[in-house]
Amino acid sequence: MQKKFILNLLFVLLLNVIVKPFYILGIDAEILRRTGEDYGVYFSLLGLTYIFNIFLDFGIVNYNTRNIAQHHFLLKKYFSTLLTIRVGLSVLYFLLVFLSAIVLDYPVSYFNLLAVLAFNQVLVAFILYMRSNIAGLLLFRYDSVISVLDRFILIGVLSFLLWGRSYSEFHIMWFAYAQTFAYAVTLLFAVAVLYNRIGVIRIRFNKVFSLALLKQSSPYAILIFLMMIYYRSDAVMLERMSGKEETAIYAQGYRFFEAFSMIGYLFAGLLLPLFSKMLKQKEKIEELLIGSFRLIFAVSFTVATACFVFRKEIIEWRYGAVSQVVLEHSSASFGVLMLSFVAISSTYIFGTLLTANGNLKRLNRLALLGVLLNFILNYYWIPQAGAYGASLASLVTQLITVLGQIYLSYRVLQLNISLKDWKPLFVFVLVMEIGVFAYLQFALDIDWRIGFLIVGVFGIITAFTTKMIDIKEGMKLILSK
């Protein structure tokens, strides 16, 4: 099982490292640079559509992935009914999004863009449902291709719109329409993959089964809804409390944060079905858990450290010459967000484990605490510090959440992980901090790009030397039968 995890992780990382960062930092960030405040509006509306995303899914994706991984024969039984439920949930989703936009007093001029973005989320929800069935069957390579296909299409379409024409004008609605096209093509491909497994896809409604399933999946729905609130409400609160310009500044750093956060999301996508199957078969999960955690922590901490050290240079490099005030404000927000990246990467490991074990009530209580804390901190810090305040609120919320998840994992699963297993982590962090401090003292004249590379390479070497990443153990798993 660990061999399958490592091999598919390498494959999915290869695809995503090539495609998704280029899309977010190359295409998406260029659109932000060209559209300015209009992107602030887009970012706020996108956050609103994400918050209510759960009403497109109601926890069905996580529930379905877990159950199909444990019982493959349920695929044909569940598929048509779940598909019908999702159609009904899509109607509910549209109503909630527009009702919320009216309550939040968004201008009517925003509603056209909001409608397209909401429809795009519907397409994404159907893609994720198809992927949950594919992942549940442990067809990770197909799932990996589908995970990047929409971005690959968007890169082609938007590259032409941004650079393939004789004039540089770009409208934010073009961005939304391009997403619609890419998601539609990706959905068709996912349907074709499943067609080979289950044949003709029919719409069928079973009232008793549907109500029972929604009741079973409701804990997943509540968890995802709460998490989306404290992941995405910052953009909505920023735009409503501080305006679209401040939201655009926040989005500059958030785009980097989001690009790197996909690493953790990929881990979770692979670990959920693996943890689910191992727990059902009563296999020991400690080795996979601590191995995956050390790996993602080493990667996330190295990336976050390099980005934090060179935060000003990175923002100026990607978004061009801006005023010193904007540069300072944007880079400060970006630096804090990258520290949050370390915490959120860890939640993808321990949160996924608790989800696979079915500990939804405990996770929901913890997530509710995160929501309340995030609202309070945003309400207090955004008026004072704008984007930087929202970043601080995110950091505090993520740290408390991941510590709570680690505590719950130990308490609920009685993990056989001692302090000795945590030792490489503490040594790794200590050596990294000493190394970066030494660099800042003696290498200030080096070009920042070279410096970024030096910090990254130093992090990789430190990860291997401190056994955060164990070559012998990794090779043994890969070469094992």
- Number of DSSP strands? 0
**Assembly state (oligomeric):** single chain
Q: Give the averaged pLDDT, no decimals.
A: 82
Q: Largest sheet, described in full? A: none
What level of helicity do the residues show?
A: over 70%
Structural class: mainly alpha
| H/E element sequence | HHHHHHHHHHHHHHHHHH
Count of separate structural domains? 2
State which percent range the strand residues make up. under 5%
Amino- and carboxy-terminal Cα gap = 10 Å
Radius of gyration (CA) equals 22 Å
Low-confidence stretches: 477-481
- What coarse outline follows from CA principal-axis ratios? globular
Number of helices: 18
Description:
With 481 residues, the chain is mainly alpha-helical. It has two domains: 2-417, no CATH class; 420-481, no CATH class. It has 18 helices and no strands. It has helices spanning 2-35, 37-51, 54-57, 60-70, 74-103, 111-136, 140-163, 172-198, 207-242, 244-280, 286-309, 311-319, 324-356, 360-385, 387-413, 419-442, 448-465, 471-479. It is globular and about 70 Å long. Residues 477-481 have low confidence and may be disordered.
